[in-house]
């Protein structure tokens, strides 16, 4: 990055932090498609395996301790949870139920899967998906299944590694390389893999700016 680009990035990150430190409100929980809010503003969705850290990342991005419930029990988030950012509302963040949760009854898993799939396929205002992947585990088959679904749905996505504080730098580098190599086969436009820790704040400022850019467009910070 050139010094000018570095400066522009710092400016975007500061603006993003300011936006997220303003209004962020929980809007509603949708257990079924018919309960979705009116598609009036852009949406960014957080998906990934159960327990990967979706709710925690949402808390970290918004600088709130527990706006999205985070839990030690996998499968805690069971509905699509909508959060509104900005006053008036500029965009929404959507905390999704985790996929690949083996301990839930198959019927329940099937219900979540259908809800997520229908949302991803049919939501006109959905601008980007964040696909969260545990830094320690890398891509698993359930993630690949999800990515395939996203490839079919034509909604772009970013891959976000979570819990980066839990492993050594050398291990982290290996996961980043492996996930990047695989992601490049799918996402021509977004070959970068974000590395984050909601616990330590790593990568959060940068992801904030990226999320707002996805929602509002590249020149959002200039207006
Ligand atoms: N060390 C560390 N722990 C984390 C991090 N992010 C999340 N966790 C922990 O991982 C567990 C699961 O986090 P959640 O945010 O509830 O995960 P989720 O993806 O929303 O889970 P479901 O809603 O069940 O799908 C919690 O115990 C969090 O405290 C992180 O960056 N670092
Ligand atoms: Mg959750």
From TrEMBL:
Family designation: Belongs to the TRAFAC class TrmE-Era-EngA-EngB-Septin-like GTPase superfamily. EngB GTPase family.
Entry's Gene Ontology BP terms: division septum assembly
GO cellular component: cytosol
Listed InterPro entries: G_ENGB_dom (IPR030393), GTP-bd (IPR006073), GTP-bd_ribosome_bio_YsxC (IPR019987), P-loop_NTPase (IPR027417), Small_GTP-bd (IPR005225)
Job description of the protein: Necessary for normal cell division and for the maintenance of normal septation.
GO MF, any single term: metal ion binding
Highest taxon of the lineage: Bacteria
Lineage start: Bacteria, Pseudomonadati, Pseudomonadota, Alphaproteobacteria, Sphingomonadales
Iron keyword on record: no
Keywords assigned: Cell cycle, Cell division, GTP-binding, Magnesium, Metal-binding, Nucleotide-binding, Septation
Keyword presence, Isomerase: no
Protein name as annotated: Probable GTP-binding protein EngB
Cofactor: Mg(2+)
EngB-type G domain span: 40-217
Pfam families: MMR_HSR1
């Amino acid at each position: 990055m050139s010094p000018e680009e570095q400066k522009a990035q710092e400016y975007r990150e500061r603006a993003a932090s300011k936006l997220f430190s303003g209004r962020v409100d929980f809007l509603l929980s949708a257990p079924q498609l018919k309960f979705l809010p009116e598609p009036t503003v852009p949406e960014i969705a957080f998906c990934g395996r159960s327990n990967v850290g979706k709710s925690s990342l949402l808390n970290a991005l918004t600088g709130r301790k527990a706006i999205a419930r985070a839990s030690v029990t996998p499968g805690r988030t069971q509905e699509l949870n909508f959060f509104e950012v900005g006053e008036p509302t500029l965009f929404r963040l959507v905390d999704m139920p985790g996929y690949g949760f083996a301990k839930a009854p198959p019927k329940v898993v099937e219900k979540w899967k259908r809800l997520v799939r229908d949302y991803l396929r049919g939501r006109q205002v959905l601008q980007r998906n964040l696909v969260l992947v545990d830094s320690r585990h890398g891509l698993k088959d359930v993630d690949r299944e999800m990515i395939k679904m996203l490839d079919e749905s034509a909604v772009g996505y970013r891959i976000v590694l979570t819990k980066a504080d839990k492993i050594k730098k050398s291990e982290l580098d290996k996961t980043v390389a492996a996930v990047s190599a695989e992601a490049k086969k799918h996402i021509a436009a977004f070959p970068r893999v974000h590395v984050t820790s909601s616990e330590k704040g790593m990568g959060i400022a940068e992801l904030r700016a990226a999320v707002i850019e996805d929602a509002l467009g590249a020149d959002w910070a200039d207006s």
